[in-house]
Amino acid sequence: MGYYSHLEKEQVKVVVQTTNERIEGHLSKMPGARLLDLLNTTNESFIAVTDASVFDASSGKQLSLVKFLAINKHQIVFIFDEAESAESV
């Protein structure tokens, strides 16, 4: 075959803030790609977060824990890699 049937991706632990929720979970991305690259791709409207904990943004109360969550990119206020955040502190 002239193509790879399986692409290696790296798992990143992320925090995603939407207008009403804070989501903590894992996101898959291509090695070397930035989170910004995922947001700037126009061919997909959603990003997939796995093992996601969803919290109310104002109270901090956990609303749900799900294995898979699709987040509309237009609802994202900010997103960051928890590992990169810990390195800069």
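Next protein, fold it too.
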Amino acid sequence: MDNSKVNVKTTKRSRSKLTKSEENVLASQITAPESAIERDELIATAAYFRAEKRGFTGNEADAVEDWLEAEREVNNKLKNFNMTASARQSSVEEELCEVE
């Protein structure tokens, strides 16, 4: 199937945010992924929650939109995680410099 011809329809339900419990599940899984496979597993989990939220109804375009929205969420969470880890590392390095 030619994916370029899939008509992705954005619905209000597919764009809804995850619940706190769903975010907690994802947050507990998010550490710096060792590989693209781990990242894809995080995205698949988030996409599953989105599909579950709409009762697993819809068509292929809805599934694609679920994946794309989940991918954006995971990328943002990973970016925030990496920024926080980087800030922690900088703070530790600054403290070490002050001690010397």
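About the second fold: The helical segments are 20-29, 36-53, 60-99.
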